[in-house]
Design a protein that fits this description.
Length: 306
C-alpha cells in the first residue's frame, strides 16, 4: 500500500499513555457508575444497552467493565499474557502515522463520495489506546478488538490488534490493516445514514437470539461492503493500491469470518450464532463494494442473497 509521505488526519487522539488505568481494572469490576456523581443515569444505561445489543456485545461487558467480546459479537480473542514493550518508539510512531494516513484517506475519499451526492461528510475521530479505555459507549478493553462507538462517533483501536491480525489470524500486510480501519469507518457511514438506528429497531422487535444475530450479520456485511467502496475509490483517486493489496484485504476478511473463528476455537461452527458473517460472505461483500464502488450495491437490509 502506498502511504508514505501522504497527508495524516488531524482526527487521531493518542490516548495510549492514559489508557489501561484510571481506576477501572480489566476484566471485571469498575463498571459504569449508575446514579452517582459523574456517573451514568438510567436513561444513559438504557442507551448503552441498546447500542451493545446492536453491536452484538453482551451489555454486561460494558456495564461491568472489560470482557472478551469482540464488537459485533461472536469473536472471542483468547486472553494473552501481559505484553512486554516489544515495539520500539520508532516502530510505534510509524504505526501511528500509518493509521493517521489511512484515516486521512478515508476522510478524503468519503468526502468526495458524499459531495457527489450533494451531501457533506462529517468524519469521525479515531482513538488509539492501550489495554483498556473509557469510551463513549462505556469501558472497553483491547480484548474487544477495534470498534466504533456511535454515541460519540469515535473509532477505538489498540494497535496490538494489528500484530494479532498478522500472527493469530494469519492476515499480514498493510492493506489488511487498512481494511480493518475502513470497516470501522463503514460503521460510521451507517451511523450517518441512520442504518444503525434502523438495525437497532429491527433487533428490538426480534423474537429470538437467532433473529437478532441475523440482523447484526447484515450490519457487519454492509460495513465490509463500504470498506470495499472506499478501496474502489481510493485506488482511482489516490493510486493507493499496490499488487496484492486487495488479496491481503480478502484474506483478512476471510480470517475473521465467524465460521473461521469458531472452527479455530471450538472445532466447529454454529451458523445461528454468527454475528459478523462467514468468511465467504465477508470476502464477497467486500469484493462487491470494491468492484462496483457504489453505496447502493451495499444494501444488505433489502436482499435475500446475504
Amino acid at each position: 500500500m502506498r502511504w508514505q509521505g501522504r497527508r495524516e488526519s488531524e482526527n487521531v487522539e493518542d490516548r495510549r499513555d492514559e489508557s489501561g488505568g484510571g481506576g477501572f481494572p480489566f476484566p471485571g469490576g469498575g463498571g459504569i457508575q449508575i446514579g452517582q456523581g459523574g456517573g451514568l443515569g438510567i436513561v444513559g444505561v438504557i442507551v448503552i444497552v441498546g447500542i451493545a445489543l446492536l453491536f452484538g456485545i453482551d451489555p454486561r461487558v460494558i456495564l461491568q467493565g472489560g470482557g472478551e467480546g469482540f464488537p459485533g459479537g461472536g469473536i472471542q480473542i483468547p486472553r494473552e499474557a501481559p505484553r512486554a514493550p516489544s515495539q520500539s518508539a520508532t516502530t510505534d510512531d510509524q504505526a501511528k502515522r500509518f493509521v493517521s494516513v489511512v484515516l486521512g484517506d478515508t476522510e478524503d475519499t468519503w468526502s468526495k463520495i458524499f459531495a457527489s451526492q450533494g451531501a457533506r461528510y462529517s468524519p469521525p475521530k479515531l482513538v488509539l489506546f492501550r489495554d483498556g479505555i473509557q469510551s463513549g459507549c462505556g469501558l472497553a478493553s483491547a480484548q474487544m478488538g477495534p470498534f466504533y462507538c456511535p454515541m460519540n462517533r469515535k473509532v477505538y483501536i489498540d494497535l496490538s490488534f494489528f500484530d494479532m491480525l498478522k500472527r493469530r489470524f494469519r492476515a499480514p500486510g498493510e492493506f489488511a490493516q487498512a481494511y480493518v480501519i475502513a470497516h470501522e469507518i463503514g460503521h460510521h457511514i451507517q451511523n450517518l445514514q441512520g442504518r444503525l438506528q434502523q438495525a437497532q429497531r429491527l433487533q428490538a422487535a426480534a423474537t429470538s437470539e437467532g433473529q437478532r444475530n441475523a440482523i447484526q450479520v447484515r450490519v457487519e456485511l454492509q460495513a465490509d461492503c463500504y470498506a470495499g467502496v472506499w478501496a474502489h475509490h481510493t485506488a482511482k483517486l489516490n493510486n493507493t493500491l499496490e499488487p496484492g493489496d486487495i488479496e491481503s484485504a480478502l484474506r483478512a476478511a476471510a480470517a475473521i469470518g465467524d465460521d473461521a473463528i469458531q472452527k479455530s476455537t471450538r472445532g466447529y461452527a454454529v451458523p445461528d450464532s454468527f454475528t459478523h458473517g462467514s468468511s465467504e460472505q465477508r470476502a464477497r461483500w467486500f469484493t462487491r463494494g470494491y468492484q462496483t464502488g457504489s453505496l447502493a450495491s451495499c444494501d444488505t437490509f433489502n436482499t435475500d442473497a446475504i
